[in-house]
Specification:
Elements: H1 2-10, H2 15-25, H3 35-41, H4 46-55, H5 61-78, H6 94-114, H7 118-130, E1 134-138, H8 142-154, E2 161-162, H9 168-174, E3 180-184, H10 194-197, H11 199-204, E4 208-213, H12 218-223, E5 226-229, H13 243-263, H14 265-281
Parallel strand pairs: 1-2, 1-3, 3-4, 4-5
């Protein structure tokens, strides 16, 4: 929610922007501000404030405020004051940079872990186990993380495909009922993105979908059977690197691997040990 409010604030010359900016500027004591206070101070109207809350999925200001406070509390207790977009600047020495990157990557993993559901992981592991064919879709750099997942799964005999970004159309055309698509998209909200453009085709072919996306990924969530949330502390246009997002995605993929491994723990462990020994003999 806070991310969406920040996005509203960037869209200048609108009542939504004025209300969003007022909320951001007064977030530390926003619970003391009534609907009338917000309308007056943002030079809008009470109706505009209500519509603002409704645009976020609430009936009105009083319905919206408790969830805003809950998200603020979560943010305050889970994040330092280090900006995930700009975790360091030119004046920081390398020792400081090490600590700052350590902090934001820990925060990203913890945020991701807090939003993971054990039940969803169990269901996802069963989908992976039962799928006739599994294909991962993701644009660069998510594609590279998908290859790490593919390699992990291959060590225990589960074959995963990673679709090349230029061949998403060909790949989705060949997907059938009983197959599984794992789609990684931070935004998860635009059909113009290749990894999302073919969602209707996958659904038409009755394949299952596991989604990895941020809170804002409503389009992808609508098509997915299960959704895992990527940490959303980075801005597409302000970040100097994918430090936070990459850790989050990799953690979800590693957790999916662990959940699948657990489904048949001893068999998978034996496969992995034997493979390691066989490969070592050839070296």
């Amino acid at each position: 929610m806070l991310e969406k409010i920040k996005q509203y604030a960037l869209n200048k010359q609108s009542s939504k922007s004025a209300i969003a900016q007022y909320i951001i500027d007064n977030l530390d004591n926003i619970e003391k501000h009534s609907l009338e206070d917000v309308a007056r101070a943002s030079f809008t109207s009470k109706a505009s404030v209500v519509r603002f809350a409704q645009s976020l999925g609430y009936k009105g200001w009083t319905d919206f405020l408790p969830d805003l406070l809950a998200e603020k509390y979560y943010s305050d207790t889970h994040y330092s004051d280090i900006d995930h977009n700009l975790p360091f600047d030119q004046d920081d020495d390398l020792a400081e940079i090490i600590q700052r990157l350590t902090t934001i990557e820990k925060e990203s993993i913890q945020d991701t872990a807090d939003k993971l559901s054990a039940n969803d992981l169990e269901v996802a592991a069963k989908l992976i186990k039962e799928a006739k064919r599994i294909v991962v879709f993701g644009l660069s750099p998510n594609e590279y993380l998908a290859y790490l997942f593919k390699r992990n799964m291959l060590t225990i005999g589960k074959i995963i495909e990673v679709s090349h970004p230029g061949e998403f159309g060909l790949t989705t055309a060949s997907i059938r009922e009983g197959d599984l698509a794992i789609i990684i998209s931070y935004s998860g909200n635009s059909k113009n993105i290749d990894s999302l453009h073919y969602l209707p085709v996958i659904k038409k072919h009755k394949a299952k979908i596991i989604a990895l996306t941020s809170e804002r990924g409503q389009l992808l969530k609508q098509f997915a059977d299960i959704t895992f949330k990527i940490c959303a502390q980075e801005s597409k246009f302000k970040k100097i690197g994918n430090f936070s997002t990459e850790e989050s995605i990799l953690f979800i993929l590693n957790t999916l691997y662990a959940a699948y491994f657990k489904e048949d723990f001893f068999t998978n462990y034996i496969k992995k040990v034997h493979l390691a020994k066989d490969l070592e003999i050839d070296r």
